[in-house]
Amino acid sequence: MLAPPDREFEWIIAQKKETKFMAKKYNLENLRQVDFTRFINTPIREVSGKKLTLCPFHTEGSPSFFIYPDNSYHCFGCGTHGNAIDFLIKKLGYSFEHACSILEEL
């Protein structure tokens, strides 16, 4: 949600406060590293200590979506990247708080 230009500064401050609250409520560093592969519907294979699969964000014929040991990800086809929280937000449309609560339960 974008704020009107005349209220943008107030909106930015409010977002920073909310992020600090979330950081206290959840252990964000741990949640970023949760294994989120259960939310991927294509076969995943191990390659040199990394997981490789078709990218869930675009159509492709050969896998280019890598999941690293810390559960961060990067697609060399479309360039999307992130962590477990980002994946649930981008792929499943969850809010930040909902994504954190789901990952906390895993």
UniProtKB/TrEMBL annotation:
Annotated GO biological process? DNA replication, synthesis of primer
Tell me where in this chain the Zinc finger CHC2-type domain is found: 51-104
- Tell me the GO molecular function terms: DNA binding; DNA-directed RNA polymerase activity; zinc ion binding
SUPFAM superfamilies tied to this protein: Zinc beta-ribbon
Matching Pfam families, A to Z?
Answer: Zn_ribbon_DnaG
Q: Which GO terms describe its cellular component?
A: cytoplasm
Q: Where is the signal peptide?
A: none
Question: Which keywords has UniProt assigned to this entry?
Answer: Metal-binding, Zinc, Zinc-finger
Q: What is this protein's record name?
A: Primase protein
Species source reads Candidatus Daviesbacteria bacterium GW2011_GWC2_40_12
